[in-house]
Predict the structure.
Amino acid sequence: MANLQVELCGVKFKNPVIAASGTFGFGREYNLLYDISVLGGISTKGMTLEPRQGNSVPRIAEGASVILNSVGLQNPGVEHFIKEDLPFLRKKGVAVIANVAGKTLEDYGEICARLDGLVDMVELNISCPNVRAGGMALGIKPENILEVTRLSKSNLKKTPLIVKLSPNVESIAVNARAAEEGGADCISLINTLTGMVIDIERRKPLLANNTGGVSGAGIKPIAVRMVYEASHAVKIPVIGMGGITCAEDAVEFLMAGARAVQVGTANFSNGNAMPEIICGLEKWLDRHNISDVNEIVNTLTLN
Amino acid sequence: MKDLLATVKSNKKIAENIYMITLVLPEDAGKMHGGQFVNLSTGNGANLLRRPLGVCIVEGDEVSVCYQVKGRGTQYLSTVEAGRKLRVLLPLGNWFDLDGYSDIAVIGGGVGVFPLIATIREYYKSKNFYSYIGFRNEDAVCLWNELNKSKKLTITTDDGSFGEKGNAVSAYLADRNNIRADVIISCGPPVMLKILKQKLKEEGIKTPCFVSLEERMGCGMGACLVCACKSASGENLRVCRDGPVFDINEVQL
Ligand SMILES: Cc1cc2nc3c(=O)[nH]c(=O)nc-3n(C[C@H](O)[C@H](O)[C@H](O)COP(=O)(O)OP(=O)(O)OC[C@H]3O[C@@H](n4cnc5c(N)ncnc54)[C@H](O)[C@@H]3O)c2cc1C
Ligand SMILES: Cc1cc2nc3c(=O)[nH]c(=O)nc-3n(C[C@H](O)[C@H](O)[C@H](O)COP(=O)(O)O)c2cc1C
Ligand code: FES
């Protein structure tokens, strides 16, 4: 049986399969389906300092092999998480990644300070609108990424920092380097691509928010390319995601340079997707006589 | 709650644009109640979202749901043949819990009748149902024999081609003094539920009323927060997990 354990920034994961932020809540519901302690880790729903209500409905739509969501940042707030959900996740023994967001630059510093030492890693969601970027996302311009990363890092003395990159940018390599320069310990990507679906009868966008984040199987080739570019632009470890539905998909990301992966939308199509991916990964490695999952990381040779 | 690969036993048209699909479950998924739903794959791999459909008929290891062909997903689903395997997550959500009630007014419209049928089947041997069911026209009328497990059944159609001309809410209001319902349960198009809420208020009807809501879903189990509706006090509720059945006075319609 191949070794599946990976280590990122000193944090141990039982296996490289992590639940992607926003698709898994805080793990309680999926734990009714299977014991979530089989997972490598969980990235929580994006949290803010105060509770948030999110966007109007409809918040979800479908395209061919993709979905779009515009949940916004509905969440119970960081204090609620620390009190109610963190103890549950701790008991489950999975690596806990707190996904965080803010309306202002300062929010990021404050929420990082609050979570420092309490969770295994903090993941910055910089794809949401921010006052500092004039209502645009902080994750678009390298100078904004550098600034928010620096501020967040200065508020994290104990907990390693992941910066989650947005794909809606000019150069993923440049942005990855900006995060590294700002002091990120790790990078994760990709967040959702921005898209729109139109209800032609009403001549209106289907989502109440007009646009939404595109995710799911259909975005995988874009995600793999971006993970490849990012992991070759920086020295810090990379977590890859975007459209992973099976073990073979995860292997692609690892070969492209990711040290671990996250799985989001696939959980909607198959509630057991993650345990099946973990099991399938082990089988794939055994079939290829590879004794350690870490051996396949970054083994791609270009044509 | 289980996520299973079920085998399609049959998938047949039961009325104009309405199909009943019967699934054989490979293992027991626990007791299922009327008002609960399943999240069913369309069978087309390009549809990453499964479709929420109300549990309609449960017999042993077989679950049947009925669906109207509306968009691309249900269109594809209607072409799925017996023997195919479909992913299904079930049972989901809460249900019409009628413990403590004896006389139930049932107000249903369109595809809202299917979860109500499950409730009637669950309780008809011990409770009296007075059902007011609206269909678009004669061609849409289906599962009459199931609905007829009610002590009293009134069917309405928009054009009067079957039963009374009119709608389910008006039919109930016209008849309500002839029955003594201690609870009302309802499921149907959002406009119907809105009118029902308004009429109950206008006419000062204090009978407890429970409604089943529809919203677009992702996970179907309460984790992703896409299926939000608002409580009377403005808080977010999850249709999939806090519902789909709510006290009509506790949600904004
Ligand atoms: C709890 C619950 C129970 C339901 N029970 C039944 C039932 O028993 N019979 C029946 O015919 N219909 C039922 N519906 C409505 C049914 O889910 C939609 O008609 C169906 O999902 C439409 O899919 P489509 O592929 O035709 O449309 P598409 O437009 O291709 O669907 C695109 C996406 O939007 C979603 N969607 C579109 N319309 C609705 C809607 N009205 N409600 C929820 N999601 C929607 C789809 O699920 C899919 O994710 C129920 C809905 C809910 C929430
Ligand atoms: C419903 C939904 C909600 C999401 N919420 C968040 C969030 O709060 N924070 C975040 O960083 N990413 C969020 N994401 C993005 C995912 O974490 C992930 O980056 C993206 O979906 C791509 O992976 P996938 O194709 O496996 O889903 C969300 C995605 C979905 C589908
Ligand atoms: S559909 Fe995911 S929370 Fe309701």
In short: The CA atoms of residues 128 and 213 of chain B lie 24 Å apart. The domain at 103-212 of chain B is CATH 3.40.50.80 (Rossmann fold).
